[in-house]
Amino acid sequence: MDDLLKTFSISSAGMKVQGARLRVISQNIANADSLPQDPNGKPYRRQTITFRNELDKSVGLETVRVSKVAQTCLILENVMSRVILHLMRMVMC
Fold first, then answer.
1. Measured distance CA(46)–CA(81) in Å, rounded
2. DSSP of 17-46, one letter per residue?
3. HSE-up of residue 77 (Cα within 13 Å, Cβ side)
């Protein structure tokens, strides 16, 4: 019976973080073309999610948890998009 509880604990932790990951992805897609609401506002910035292993003391196992959800750096996004565009141009030539 103990193994069954451990299995459920691991499975539920995995499903929770996958749900969080899907929420972040759906927010990024939904807001991809969003503009600032006021002239001084900033446009929507893509979010990233990070996971970590954490000991679940109730069952004595490591399970996965959400570590943080953060906005990406605009400079890094701009550099990455330029690199991707450059690589796409190289492939198409």
1. 13
2. HHHHHHHHHHHHHHTTT---SSTTPPPP--
3. 10
Residues 33-72: tens digit of each pLDDT: 888 777 887 778 889 999 999 888 877 888 888 988 888 7
**What's the one-letter identity of residue 41?**
G
Distance CA 80, CA 54 (A): 31
Q: Locate 34 and state its tokens.
A: 């969003």
Are the C-beta atoms of 42 and 34 separated by less than 8 Å?
no
From 59, 65, 52, select the one nearest 7 (Cα to Cα). Answer: 59
Residue with tokens 């796409």: 88
| Predicted model pTM | 0.65
Query: Element (H or E) spanning 2, and its range?
Result: helix 2-30
Is there a contact between 47 and 28 (Cβ–Cβ < 8 Å)? Answer: yes
